[in-house]
Amino acid sequence: MSQQQSIVSVYRLQALARALLPRERVASCCRAMVPGAPFVDIFRLPQHAAARYGNLIRCASYWTCPVCARKIAARRALELAALLDAHEAAGGVAAMLTLT
Length: 100
What we know:
Elements: H1 3-20, E1 41-45, E2 50-54, H2 66-89
Antiparallel strand pairs: 1-2
């Protein structure tokens, strides 16, 4: 699955979540403007050959919104990578253990 197909499928899942949970925050995520904002901004990101919108409400719901979950997971992955790099640079060792 290409990056573009992946993004499209995430927004399709968000539409399903919005339909199933009309009273939850996910229902207005990426659909409503931030209160007091004069208009929706569009930012061009040439380094990524992409664009993004600004002044739209984000629900930040990791468990119900696929769009926000993707953004939160990416940010946490960067934070974890920086933490592990700093730990290893200080002479530490990191391991992962999964118990089932």
